[in-house]
Structures are given as structure tokens and as C-alpha cells.
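Title: Prediction job returns without error message
Component: structure pipeline
Severity: low
Priority: P3
Assignee: unassigned

Description:
Job completed but the reporter wants confirmation the result is attached to the right record. Sequence as submitted:
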Amino acid sequence: METNVKTTLIIPDAAVAEKHGLETVTELLCNEEYCATSFGYPVFQLPNGDIFDGPTFRELRDACGATLETNCLVKVCLGLGMPKTEPGLVVIGD
């Protein structure tokens, strides 16, 4: 059964979000058809189609405490190249 991956980037500082061309709450698209590596890991995309990656998340988290809320931690970690214990990753229900 396929999981509907819900992933939301939350940036608590509107000025930081604007600097990066983002909203304070941004839904990310889990695109499993556009795999980042030969391993077939999912790619997470912003609404404009740009790829969202681990270093960008860490930059936003360190700048203002941004978090990523998701109902599928495994796919987020594989797609962004992060451990499950990465600060700022929040597991939510469906």
C-alpha cells in the first residue's frame, strides 16, 4: 500500500522565509518519479518545482528554528540524506 507522504516546512521567521522565496508554511511534494540517486530515494520539491534538500533545511533550522513535519519519517530521511534523529524533524499523524 502506497503512503501519501505529507511534509510541511514551517519557518517561524517571516523575514527568513521571504529571503529564501518561501512562505512561513510550505507544503513539500514527495516526488518518487524524479529520484535523486540510483538508489531510488524520493526527491522533495517546493511548490515552484525546485528541489528541497537537507543542507537547505539545516540552514533554515539553524537560522530561525525551522521544522519539517511529516507522516513518513523514513522517506524524508532518505530523500534529504538525514538521520531519523535530525533536530527539527517532527512526526505527525495522517
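Comment from assignee: result matches the submitted record. The mean pLDDT is 89.
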